Amino acid sequence: MSDPAEVEHRRQALRDLSRRGFLTTTAAGATAIAADMGHINALQSEAVTKQLKQNDTRVILLWLAGGASQFETWDPKPGAKTGGPFRAIPTNANGVHISELLPQLAKRMQHTAVIRSLNTRIADHGGGASLMETGRVRDPGLDFPDLGAVVARELGRLDSQVPDYVSLYTSTEGRRKGTSGVLGSRYAPMFLSDNMIPLNLAQLDAVSSVDHEDRAALRDVFARKFSKNRSSAAVDSHMSAYQRVRGLMASEQLFNVENEPAEVRARYGPTQFGEQCLIARRLVEAGVPFVKVARAWWDSHGQNFETHQELCADLDHTMSVLLDDLSERGLLENTLIITLGEFGRTPRINASLGRDHFANAWSCSLSGHGIRGGSVYGKTDPEGNTVVDGEASAADLFATVLQALGIDHEHEYMVGARPIPMADFGSSPINDVLA
Amino acid sequence: MTRRICAVLTSFVVLFHSAGFASENKLLPADTLIQDAIDHYLQMGIAKNGISAVTHASDETILRRTTLDLAGRIPTRPEQEWYKQRLPDERREQLVDRLLSLPDAAYHQANEIDSHLLSNSPYNGEFREYLLWATKEKRSWDQMFRDMLLAKPEEGPLQGATQFLRTRIREVDDLTNDTAILFLGINVSCAKCHDHPLVDDWKQDHFYGMQAFFSRTYQTKKNVVAEKFFDEVKFKTTEGEDKLASFMFLTGDVVPDATPEFSDEARKELEEKIRKAEREDDSEAPVPDFSPRMQLVDIALRDDHNAFFAKNIVNRVWARMLGTGLVTPLDQMHSGNPPSHPELLAWLARDLKQNGYDLNRLIRGVALCEAYAGDSEWTSAAEPPQDQYFAVARTRPLTHRQLALSLQVASTSPVNWPAAEASDEWTQKRESLENRANGWARDFEQPKEDFQIAVDEALFFSNNARVYDDVLRDSGDRLIGHLKAFEDDAQLVAALWEAVLSRIPDEEERNAAVAWLQRENEDRVEKIRQLSWTLLAGPEFRFNH
Amino acid sequence: MDEIDTSANTPVAKSAAEPAISSVKIARSFSLPGAVFCVAGGCLPSQLYFGSSEFGVYRVDSDAEKPEPTAVSDSKHSSYVTGLVRIGDALISGSYDGSLIWWDASTGDVRHRVNSAHDKWIRQIAISPDGSTVASVGDDMKTRVWNAETADSIAAWDGYELMTPHGYPSMLYAVAFSPDGKWLATGNRTGKVLIRNAATGGVEATLETPVMYTWDPKARRHSIGGIRSLSFSSDSQLLAVGGMGVVVNIDHLGGASRIEVFNWQSGEKKFEIEDTKFKGLVEQLQFGPDDKWLVAAGGDNGGFVSVYEGAAGTLLAQEKTPMHVFDFQLSADGSTLRAVGFEQASVVDIA
């Protein structure tokens, strides 16, 4: 029934297990776990960071949930009827001006490209978010994965000891979980909504470390016996899911900002967005391919300018620190930072001094890996009502992002019998913003 | 509009012209037993391709597999005892008939249909009430289709049938696509804005033709599913031409538009009434004589030639029980994607239709065929035969509900189970089991085609407090409490294996487990708990194999 | 004194004696370009000067058959004009651009310009009752006092945190002199009121109105609200503070309009008003003649003018305005209120 080598392998595993079981006191088990943690920490060493630099690209998506105003960020129109009260300020990129609400980012435009000509048409939260998360209009019957899942799949390693896709979504409307769609739950995000540490990552106090480790080893012995002659993707996924448990548990420490030196934490600042971006930096540093940090609440139907004073201050400071920190660690050239939301905001200022939903002419930014810093693509009219040059769709943006990451945007996933390209049909990358 | 190209669509052309997958007059006689027909057709495929014959799974495996498929849970200890006492030649048939007679069969069938039809809004209480009522009443599948698609305002459990439409009513595309996919096995969504140069109009005609059956459907303020008196579906062809959709079924058959003529005044009056019904609590919706949805139901059930309706459910029940559809993916029933066994699918569809769409009859037949009893292990050095021959049983992940229910069964003390029977007492037992399991099922993912298990689940089993405090609780009525009473470790291990895996351990397993229990320096109960965990978190428990 | 019931917002029947107000009526409304944030009275009651989102200072005759605003000057600020006062033939305006400008009201000449009066947005300016000094507040969280004639800086006072307790930039919205000229009150985003000695800047009293500031700690993590208006009673003893109550969905101005009235020297809160019929910010407040009543105006997407009884805050009369009101001028006898706001102005009769 079973071949002798396999039986011997299992016997040996059991012998190892018993030996450890019989010999161990808690100390030995603790050492084993410390070794696991060491593996994660090792990723922070210079040698590993360098290796990461050569091999791996990462994405941090700063999701401006609710829809940030392009006027108060990347496409200011000072003096126009629709322009609002803020000034435009020069940046360190020649001739490029952005809103005065982003003074620190203005000094770091060598990293950043701005796209000012998104025309994505869909201006309701659900539809807009779905469009900008997946790069295509929601199509019943086609459960297309979002950008995070695509990147997790294309850039993640199968044997990864860290999560592939982490979504920090503690404060925003709708708590959109993200979807791995047809790629399956292997690429679904590790989703944080209430706590800064993912669910079920920490070991229960009631289970000793020795037991936790040893029982996993014994489970593995029984599991291998079962799965040896029952090869299927589903059975294999069960096996690899359990194999990733201990590594992921070690990555719990990645979510703990207390592990960062006080000066680094102080640099990111006290806001939740700051802390989450610090976690994002820790995660990409350890090899997580895609981290989404959602920052609410840009849906400024009332008091648009005050809202942006608060939120842009947060974005400006935190993103600047993130760029500096990644750059100092040599990680920025391998990390693409995207600022994006479901849409922009209306040129018209309403009676509550708010701006409403608007998807016909808005902006986003791309920084870091694969991006031609200091570039601006596309143009809106003087009042920001329409795109007058370089109109780009959600699909074009996706093609651009994938291209920047070195992923063929025309590569197709088979969905049932339908071949579906990663960036929607008819899209093309915006080469002007690519390095 | 974004341009889309759907490669599969070419195949639709062939479908509606050469239509059927197998000619009916060449099929086995209608009075053949279902299992015999299945064996006959599968054997033809196996023989033709030189594949070695099916090896049978062990009795214990067949008991577990069949109980999971027909009752939605693993067998209890009395059920294991009962099975052992049957005569070997009669066991399987008696098991299948016994399981189908239990209340569990209705619960399980309701759970399966629920996952199938309402996976996008799970745990819908009204829908579940309807399904349980329908499966307990052994309502036929065509009747359930009518219940759900006509969605008449009814009192009592029938009320819940309206949920199929109500949960999709905001989006006519969802109504169209989901009805086609879930009831007819055809995904037409890619025909919406398709631009194939040869068959362009034809395909859009089908998509919008199907949509026309739903475009008048709306919901009143009182949550009644109603239909308007007039509405026309217009679409733009890829040539930019505006076109009016007819009531066209997937086969290309068109239902004549019997919308009566209305004077402008009558039209206005009706529109006003409908507007009121949409907005006001105390307004009744006027009911039109011509109901496109009723026409759709009729034409779908009338379609003897393609039999999409019957074939779809046969294919889905088949995939549920054998792990792979006769047509796969399940929503691609077209001639570009022919069934692995066209005659078998045609025969089963005909049989289902001729026997009043009795799903239990179909399930019984499948459960008794040879392929269903096959071994899921492939030990030969040669490559295993492809899934489509059904020569090796598939290892299938449990659904979220099967897993949750089985966890409840396994973690209960085996001696606490009465013998399951068709009684009110057992119905109540099952009901409370369902309720407890529901709380757990929400933590597990609903499997879809090509399901993979996420690391979240492994983390849940590894570190969630409920697994430790509930499943592994040390109390008299629980598995752990039962096990700790054994003084002999080997007996304890045997009892554990039987409770969780429905079989006795082999020597290697027993030795490893006993060695675990004899480790030093530890609380014995804790060791029992962790040993139990190794099985509950293992693949053998997680899968139906 | 009447029986006090702070919860009742229904108009009370007018008694034979006091108070005398039973109606608020919009006499006329007319269009103005942009969002009009501030208004100052001219020599004639009907003559109004205003500053707006068009960056300039304008004049309009509110009694004209077809009111046509005209620019006071060819010069403009470089952002929204949010504060405006008049002393004789001079207008003094403050803007989000951080500058103060002294204009000749008739020629439009710029007499003085202080370019960096504040490092951030100027939110409001006020003139002392004797017309000698002007106070300005801005988001640099400073209160500055200027010689109304020469534009010389007299004083700059701190006393507010630059950031909110939650780590975001704070804002200093409101400033008002007491009628006796002795005191200067200011109010910020988080609901803190400082009452200073107007001459020395010494803080005489601190009041907290935390309800005016909604911080959503969970879902949205940002804030809305703040103290938007301040007004002393004629005896300078009471201070009315205007803003908005707790907001659930802070994307919108969805809180009750809110007023708290203090006996500021003792710190005792005399009464508070939460009006859920008209939601949004109380952008401007003023005690009427003899403090018998208090008029408040503001809004959310729409707007309101409400009159409350002065001693206890009972609602006397109110009316919906065609626009969110940012500022108003109240005639000396209290009978006419000229309100400006989003793209409109209204003349309101109070009787």
Please supply descriptive tags for the structure shown above.
heterotrimer, B: 545 residues, mainly alpha, two-stranded antiparallel sheet, two-stranded antiparallel ribbon, 4% strand, globular, disordered N terminus, C: 351 residues, mainly beta, Methylamine Dehydrogenase, Chain H, four-stranded antiparallel β-sheet, 28 strands
TL;DR of this structure?
The complex is a heterotrimer of chains A (435), B (545) and C (351). In chain B, 52% of the residues lie in helices and 4% in strands.
- Taken as a percent bin, the fraction of beta residues of chain C is over 45%
The CATH superfamily of chain C turns out to be: YVTN repeat-like/Quinoprotein amine dehydrogenase
Task: Name the CATH class of chain C.
Answer: Mainly Beta
Low-confidence stretches of chain B: 1-21, 195-202
Please give the count of helices of chain B: 25
CATH topology of chain C: Methylamine Dehydrogenase, Chain H
End-to-end separation of chain C: 21 Å
Head-to-tail CA distance between termini of chain B: 47 Å
Query: How many domains make up the 3D coordinates of chain C?
Result: 1
**Sheet with the most strands, sense and barrel status of chain C:** 6 strands, antiparallel
- The spatial strand order of the largest sheet of chain C comes to 4-3-2-1-28-27
Strand count of chain B:
8
Mean pLDDT of chain C, nearest integer? Answer: 92
The low-pLDDT segments of chain C are 1-16
Helix content percent band of chain C: under 10%
Strand content of chain B: under 5%
Main beta sheet of chain B, described?
2 strands, antiparallel
Give the overall shape of chain B. Answer: globular
* Helix and strand pattern of chain C: EEEEEEEEEEEEEEEEEEEEEEEEEEEE
Write the layout of secondary structure elements.
The complex is a heterotrimer of chains A (435), B (545) and C (351).
Chain A: H1 4-23, H2 26-42, H3 46-55, E1 58-64, E2 88-90, E3 97-99, H4 103-106, E4 112-118, H5 125-134, H6 147-155, E5 165-168, E6 190-192, H7 209-227, H8 233-243, H9 245-250, H10 262-268, H11 272-285, E7 290-295, H12 304-328, E8 335-340, E9 344-345, E10 357-358, E11 362-368, E12 376-377, E13 379-380, E14 387-389, H13 394-404, E15 412-415, E16 418-421
Chain B: H1 10-18, H2 34-48, H3 59-71, H4 77-85, H5 91-101, H6 103-117, H7 125-136, H8 141-150, H9 163-166, H10 172-184, H11 200-212, E1 217-219, E2 225-227, E3 234-236, E4 242-244, E5 247-248, E6 254-255, H12 264-279, H13 292-302, H14 308-322, H15 342-354, H16 359-367, E7 396-397, H17 400-411, H18 424-441, H19 455-463, H20 465-471, H21 479-484, H22 489-501, H23 507-517, H24 524-536, H25 539-542, E8 543-544
Antiparallel strand pairs in B: 1-2, 3-4, 5-6, 7-8
Helix pairs in contact in B: 2-15, 2-16, 3-5, 6-7, 8-13, 14-15, 14-16, 17-18, 22-23
Chain C: E1 24-41, E2 47-52, E3 57-61, E4 70-71, E5 81-87, E6 90-95, E7 100-104, E8 110-114, E9 122-127, E10 133-138, E11 143-147, E12 153-157, E13 172-177, E14 183-188, E15 192-197, E16 203-208, E17 213-215, E18 223-225, E19 229-232, E20 238-244, E21 256-263, E22 268-279, E23 281-287, E24 293-299, E25 303-309, E26 315-321, E27 325-330, E28 336-350
Antiparallel strand pairs in C: 1-2, 1-28, 2-3, 3-4, 5-6, 6-7, 7-8, 9-10, 10-11, 11-12, 13-14, 14-15, 15-16, 17-18, 19-20, 20-21, 21-22, 23-24, 24-25, 25-26, 27-28
